[in-house]
Design goal:
alpha/beta, Uridine kinase, transferase, 7 strands, two-stranded antiparallel ribbon, kinase activity, globular, 6 helices, P-loop_NTPase, Rossmann fold
């Protein structure tokens, strides 16, 4: 595990090496708490690799068909779909990136994109024992859940989210982030641990 000593340039270098070494797109997974900067990092990496933003896979577009406000810690995302997608990329069984997305509001659509040079997937619980065998390079953004949650609340207020949705950060999302970190210890699973200062 590289604890941010080389920051973003090291992430670019290691991803580039994997692209050259493998006969398929490497799977790069970026994890962190809500509000930690996962999406920003994923899109930055994608841009530097020539990957379009529509080829990045956010797990918040892969929700399970559940009541998102009542779902338990690992029930929120559609893990069978996520694992199947990663397996297909790893085996090179498809030349295109295809999966069915489902948003927080339940809206579904088919994603059909050219397979990118690297598959970048980002999400709050993407680093877990079940996914690690399917990931070539794992990144954890190390920001405390409470701090990340405050950033997320500010972002969501700017996006016009309701007071009820903002309250969920204090009653559900932040506490679940604390529990996830306690149970899974994603820092120990990650190949690279980055702090926000490493991304400047």
């Amino acid at each position: 595990m590289d604890e941010g000593r080389h920051g973003y340039p090291d992430l670019i270098r290691r991803t580039g090496e994997l692209i050259e070494q493998l006969d398929r797109p490497p799977v790069v997974a970026i994890g962190g708490h809500g509000g930690s900067g996962k999406s920003t990092l994923a899109l930055r990496l994608a841009g530097d690799l020539g990957v379009s933003r529509t080829q990045v896979v956010p797990t918040d577009q892969l929700y399970a068909a559940v009541d998102t406000r009542r779902a338990a810690l690992f029930e929120l995302q559609d893990w069978p779909e996520i694992l199947d997608l990663l397996r297909r990329v790893r085996t090179g069984s498809r030349s295109r990136l295809r999966y069915r997305s489902r948003g927080y509001d339940g809206h579904e659509e088919l994603v059909d994109e050219q397979m990118p040079a690297a598959l970048i997937i980002e999400g709050i619980r993407v680093l877990r024992p079940e996914t690690m065998p399917l990931i070539d390079l794992s990144v954890w953004i190390d920001l405390e859940p409470q701090v990340a949650g405050e950033r997320a609340k500010a972002r969501n207020r700017d996006q016009g989210d309701s007071a009820m949705e903002i309250t969920l950060w204090d009653t559900k999302w932040i506490p679940e982030g604390v529990e996830y970190e306690r149970l899974v210890r994603p820092q120990r699973l990650a190949d690279i641990v980055l702090r926000p200062v490493d991304l400047i």
